[in-house]
Write a structure and sequence with these properties.
By secondary structure, the protein is an alpha+beta fold. Among the domains are: about 250 residues, Immunoglobulin-like (Sandwich); about 100 residues, Neutral Protease Domain 2 (Neutral Protease, domain 2, Orthogonal Bundle), CATH 1.10.390.10; about 130 residues, Neutral Protease Domain 2 (Neutral Protease, domain 2); about 80 residues, Sandwich (Immunoglobulin-like), CATH 2.60.40. It contains 26 helices and 28 strands. α4 runs parallel beside α10 and α16 runs parallel beside α18.
Length: about 900
């Protein structure tokens, strides 16, 4: 999938919509499997969940009365049930829904009136009838009317307020949904767990001035006497509740088709032309995935909705994908070119979900990586196929680093760890699921070969279509394609926490290089853990030779001809780190320019991680940077920038921070001078991205020339908005100015944020505003978050991030603690456990980690401790690094800082 007014005056009739029972074919989703791993493969009764399995849904008929002007909605739900075993009650999931009636009818026509007892703590409804007679096995129809709440944050059924132009005085409104993972129960009472698949008939009654959208095409419309219109949609295929999509708004449509399938991109008025790039990408991807999986897109239409605010990320609802508009719309006059890469990636991810996740659904949330990791991996595969110049395989290391850093912590989880409680489901949508899961898939694709891997996926897709699956189902089909059981090789990577460090030692004698490989679990704090072991697919490149092997618990030795540099993660496809002996490290530095870019970035990333953990001296890392000064690959410089920004944060508040910034200026300024500030025809996508990152980072590192030039551009833009800043560097320019803002400049940025008529500008100015370094202005932002200046979702984000982003985490933390109830009220259920951890994330001392854990437990309880534990571990890592290196690093960096030697493409306008 990574955010009122009026009152309801009409009622829903209770019995008017009873219809003949829908077919229950495929409703139970019970499958039998043979073979040695059958016990671990999908079995409906063995699938985890809170609901009993005695009663299952076959079909939902859902009627909604929706009006964007109202803060509540009316609903009527009929569920065709199969009672598998006699039951004393019906248990459904429902969150903040108010039942007005509930009836149950048997196949013979007997009607029972039901009482509804909410269990708010567990988000359940318990439906019971008079008498003690159990509900007999067979078919029944459950009919309920209820009222629900429209959210102001991007979850459940939520309202979006937006303006179509900067000068518009009146905000427009639309409704949309985000039901994954557990928000469907806030929109209709349901069996809201992924194994309970069913078909859906959906109808929406809304004011006639609005268009209603759902998963399937419109089947019919009826004008009503009160000026509203009822829109009925065709029946869906069998699917889980979290894929239901509802939207009501004044949409403008960009239309097209592929393979006879109608395609639409729906936007706010005046914006549909900005969907052209995404539409072209969509048509490419539908053909690519059809050919790859051997299964064509399976619904009769595909809508993609650009939501102009509130919602975060995107959601793969079958046939009606919704996105925050910044992830779908591209305006060449305003948007930075790199937004095309983002749009391609996100659209590819969500369309891949139409197969992985929708056609085949993970049985339970511990296997949600079957949805998300595959969509991540397929998106990268598609990007590389259509846009090889983007260097996706090299850039993927940047995202893998996020997962590796998290996975190196002592409190990490396995890709397939079951959530410890239902609220913990939110926490599995993280870098472990997306980035680690995707990297592990890529590693085993490289091990098995692309054609074998694809054949296994095709078998998996056909065998489990319109059904559920587990990881062991996937291993079964990949094993069938490979002709051998791969389960022992691959399952530990999904079920075991952490990842390996390969220890590589080399010795050259008699014209041959002998390589010894062993493994241990990698830890960000340098602690050794020999208990955890993996079957590690290793690709060794030694000179011109290559060899594959699988490293297990015992060390292995291999020989290569010649005294050559050795790379033990050839092609950088492995999800592990590598530590080389001093001799091979020196040979790799000498051969640096001859290594492929993917291996260069892997070497840089691993060397930094080893230095951070205390396994090697930091001098080793900076020696490597010394040989890459003429590097031309943008992603590698981006990796270095990430490393320097980490050091800047780790040493914040100490003398070493100034040394890091001085070194950063000396290293990065010549790179920016070489690229210049203007876009050139020969610039590739990596260069365009890098230029913006360099300006932004040099601004953070107090480069006077950069700050002055950014200020001049900003002043010229605000004086004459018709002469905008070059889109490719606009984010960096605005961010650099905002960091150094005085009160007047702050008010200008605030005004630009207030006048933003699209989410791209909203994110730009809001993201820049929270960087301001003036403590008084940080306090001003915090105070404004408790007003109606910004929507709750934006206010919640600003309040928890401004402290760390501005360099004043103490101000942010203190404000949240002093105003905790008011701050939490602004946050979504998913965001609340992250409020304090995000506010503490800028700290770098051990006592602050302990304080976070104590305060989080006191204020939010044990169920909210996972985010606090993750951030506390990051704080401890920074504290350990600071304690170890604070006295040594300044002198080391001073010895490495060189005078700037500029080879600029253009004259430097302002002297340093």
């Amino acid at each position: 999938m990574k955010r009122h007014l009026g009152s309801v005056t009409r009622s829903v009739r209770v019995l008017a919509c009873l219809r003949p029972f829908a077919s229950v074919t495929s409703a139970l989703l019970l499958f039998a499997y043979g073979g040695p791993t059958a016990a671990s493969r999908f079995d409906f009764d063995a699938t985890p969940g809170r609901l009993p399995k005695d009663i299952v849904p076959a079909h939902y008929t859902l009627e909604f009365e929706l009006d964007p002007a109202r803060d509540t909605f009316n609903g009527h739900a009929e569920i065709d049930l199969t009672v598998r075993r006699p039951a004393s009650e019906i248990v459904l999931q429902a969150t903040e829904l108010q039942a007005t009636s509930a009836l149950l009818r048997s196949e013979s026509g007997t009607v029972r009136e039901l009482s509804v007892t909410p269990d708010a703590a567990k988000n359940l409804w318990r439906l019971r009838w008079k008498g003690s007679e159990p509900l007999a096995a067979g078919r029944w129809r459950l009919s309920m009317t209820y009222q629900g709440k429209v959210e102001k944050r991007g979850q459940g059924l939520f309202v979006v307020e937006y303006r179509t132009s900067a000068g518009a005085e009146t905000a427009q409104r639309m409704l949309a949904t985000q039901l994954e993972p557990t928000h469907a129960r806030a929109v209709f009472p349901s069996f809201d767990e992924p194994a309970f698949r069913a078909t859906f008939d959906i109808a929406i009654t809304a004011p006639a001035s609005f268009e209603a959208v759902s998963n399937m095409p419109v089947a019919g419309q009826t004008a009503l006497a009160d000026g509203s219109r009822r829109t009925a949609f065709a029946r869906t295929p069998s699917m889980p509740t979290y894929l239901v999509a509802l939207a009501v708004g004044d949409f403008e449509a960009l239309t097209d088709s592929f393979d006879g399938i109608p395609l639409r991109i729906l936007t706010a008025r005046g914006r549909s032309h900005e969907g052209r790039y995404a539409m072209d990408v969509t048509k490419l991807l539908l053909g690519y995935f059809r050919d790859y999986f051997g299964v064509a897109y399976m619904l009769p239409k595909l809508d993609q909705l650009a939501i102009p605010g509130v919602r975060g990320g995107a959601m793969e609802d079958w046939g009606a994908i919704s996105y925050n508009e910044t992830l779908l719309l591209y305006d060449p006059k305003r948007s930075a070119p790199r937004l095309q890469l983002t749009i391609f990636n996100i659209v590819a991810h969500e369309i891949a979900h139409q197969w992985f996740g929708n056609l085949v659904t993970a049985a339970w949330w511990d296997d949600i990586w079957l949805n998300e990791a595959f969509a991540t991996w397929m998106a990268a595969k598609a990007q590389d196929h259509f846009n090889p110049a983007w260097g996706v395989r090299v850039r993927s290391r940047l995202f893998r680093e996020d997962a590796l850093s998290l996975d190196a912590q002592s409190g990490t989880r396995a890709v397939a760890d079951p959530p410890p409680h239902e609220t913990g489901i939110f926490e599995v949508f993280d870098d472990i699921t997306y980035a680690k899961g995707g990297a592990v898939l890529g590693m085993f694709e490289a091990q098995l070969g692309e054609s074998v891997f694809r054949e296994g996926l095709r078998q998996y897709m056909v065998a489990h279509r319109y059904s559920n699956a587990t990881a062991d189902d996937l291993w079964f089909h990949l094993s069938q394609a490979a002709g051998r059981d791969i389960t022992p090789l691959v399952s530990d990577w999904i079920r075991q926490r952490g990842f390996p460090l390969l220890i590589v030692t080399t010795a050259c004698s008699d014209g041959r290089t002998r390589i010894t490989l062993s493994q241990e679990r990698f830890s960000s704090r340098g602690a050794k853990d020999l208990a955890a072991m993996w079957q590690v697919p290793v690709v060794i490149h030694a000179g011109a030779d290559a060899r594959r092997l699988v490293l297990g618990r015992e060390p292995q030795q291999v020989d290569f001809p010649g005294c050559v540099p050795v790379v033990a993660n050839g092609g950088d496809t492995g999800y592990y780190r590598v530590q080389y002996d001093a001799g091979n490290s020196a040979r790799l530095r000498a051969a640096y320019s001859r290594l492929p870019a993917a291996e260069r970035i892997g070497l840089i990333a691993d060397t930094m991680a080893l230095a951070r953990s205390g396994r090697i001296e930091f001098a080793e890392y900076f020696r490597l940077l010394d040989v890459m000064r003429e590097e031309r690959e943008g992603a590698l410089w981006q990796q270095v920038i990430e490393h320097l920004l980490y050091l800047d944060e780790a040493f914040a508040g100490s003398p070493a921070q100034a040394a890091v910034r001085a070194y950063g200026r000396a290293l990065l300024r010549p790179v920016l001078d070489r690229l210049g500030w203007q876009v050139h025809a020969e610039d590739d996508a990596g260069t365009v991205r890098l230029r913006n990152s360099l300006i932004d980072t040099l601004g953070q590192f107090d480069d006077a020339e950069t700050a002055t030039r950014c200020r001049a551009m900003f002043d010229a833009f605000t004086a004459a908005p018709s002469a905008p800043i070059e889109p490719s560097i606009r984010p960096a320019v605005i961010r650099t100015v905002a960091r150094n803002a005085d009160a007047a400049t702050f008010e200008t940025v605030r005004r630009l944020l207030r006048e933003a008529s699209n989410q791209e500008d909203n994110y730009l100015y809001g993201g820049a505003m929270i960087l301001v370094r003036d403590p008084a202005l940080v306090q001003r932002i915090l105070e404004l978050t408790l007003t109606d200046e910004w929507p709750p979702g934006s206010a919640s984000w600003y309040v928890r991030t401004v402290g760390a982003s501005s360099g004043h985490p103490d101000i942010g933390r203190d404000f949240i603690l002093q105003n905790f109830d008011a701050v939490i009220a602004k946050s979504s259920r998913r965001g609340r456990p992250w409020m304090l951890p995000m506010a503490y994330s800028g700290f770098n001392q051990e006592r602050q980690a302990e304080d976070l854990l104590a305060v989080q437990r006191r204020l939010l309880g044990d169920d909210a401790m996972a985010p606090a534990g993750q951030i506390a571990e990051s704080i401890r890592e920074k504290a350990a690094l600071r304690a170890r290196e604070e006295s040594n690093l300044p002198q080391l960096l001073k010895s490495l800082t060189r005078p700037r030697q500029s080879k600029s493409r253009e004259p430097v306008a302002v002297a340093n």
